[in-house]
Design brief:
Order of helices and strands: EHHEEEEEEEEHHHEHHEEHH
Strand order of the largest sheet: 1-2-9-4-7
Structural class: alpha+beta
Radius of gyration: 21 Å
Largest sheet: 5 strands, antiparallel
């Protein structure tokens, strides 16, 4: 298997589960960036973590068909969500970075229809699903932050679909690199133009619908054009605006901000729906 760079986090503990808190600071930073969490909200999220779990590279965190009772958050390392056919062919449908939630048995059915695998050594925070629901019921700020994060995840999925369906090989990989740097920068894990990239060429190909050979040729093309450098675990984009142009990259789908909270009492009386008068006729 051809490595783009070495794995990160090689000094992590052996596989296992550890009791106690693991600070989900990347998650808190991401949620605060989009929704604006209060100090109490941040403290509540920290106190939710009951234990942390460690996974080796290529180990599954979640198997398709699992029934979940916990919320898992990536603390360190990279993972991916994927679908796999009976003959072994795999499609990566999402990269999970520090701060990302990789299981949500809150709003959606507990039975998951995808698998999650560690691409590097990974540490996750585990939060009891009922504890999370109770916290969201007590804090509208936390509830809204997770809802916005769910919307952002769906937006990324739509962009990945468009990436495979519309863009050329060069554009696909350029777009993916722009997205990765932007997402890592949002949680404080990338400079303006550089980040660690612990992915093989096979990992890239399974995310953008290309063979490893095609990925290799495309990377060489991007290098030769001066758009990227890949060296010793590091992706550098010398001219982000140039790569953005090649990729047709618009980061608005990643940079969601919370809008004003709807308050029915602030709607002018003339525009309010008379439920008692209109409701029964609408339901008839």
């Amino acid at each position: 298997m051809t490595q783009i760079n070495a794995e990160t986090g090689s000094d992590m503990n052996p596989l296992g589960v550890t009791s106690g808190q693991g600070m989900p600071h990347h998650l808190i930073r991401k949620l605060d960036r989009s929704a604006g969490l209060s100090a109490n909200d941040k403290d509540a999220l920290t106190r939710l973590v009951r234990e942390t779990a460690w996974f080796n590279t290529d180990q599954d965190l979640i198997d398709e068909g699992d029934t979940l009772r916990q919320v898992s958050v990536i603390l360190n390392g990279w993972a991916c969500c994927y679908k796999q056919l009976a003959d072994g062919r795999r499609q990566i449908i999402a990269y999970l970075l520090p701060g990302d939630v990789c299981s949500t048995p809150l709003v959606f059915p507990n039975l998951v229809d995808y698998s999650v695998r560690a691409l590097t050594p990974v540490r996750t925070a585990r939060i009891d699903g009922q504890d999370m629901l109770s916290t969201m019921e007590r804090s509208a700020g936390i509830a809204r932050a997770f809802w916005l994060d769910t919307l952002a995840t769906a937006a990324i999925q739509r962009e990945w679909t468009a990436n495979v369906g519309l863009r050329t090989a060069r554009e696909r990989i350029a777009h993916l690199f722009c997205e990765i740097v932007t997402r890592l920068h949002a949680v404080g894990l990338a400079d303006q133009d550089s980040c660690t990239l612990p992915l093989t060429q096979e990992d890239l190909g399974e995310a953008v619908g290309l063979s490893a050979v095609h990925v290799n040729r495309t990377l060489q093309d991007l290098r030769a054009s001066g758009l990227i450098t890949l060296k010793r675990q590091q992706l550098t984009i010398p001219d982000f605006a140039a790569l953005r142009s090649v990729a047709h990259f618009d980061d608005s789908y990643l940079c969601r901000r919370a809008g004003p909270v709807f308050d029915a009492n602030r709607v002018p009386a003339s525009q309010r729906l008379d439920v008692e008068r209109v409701g029964p006729r609408m339901l008839a």
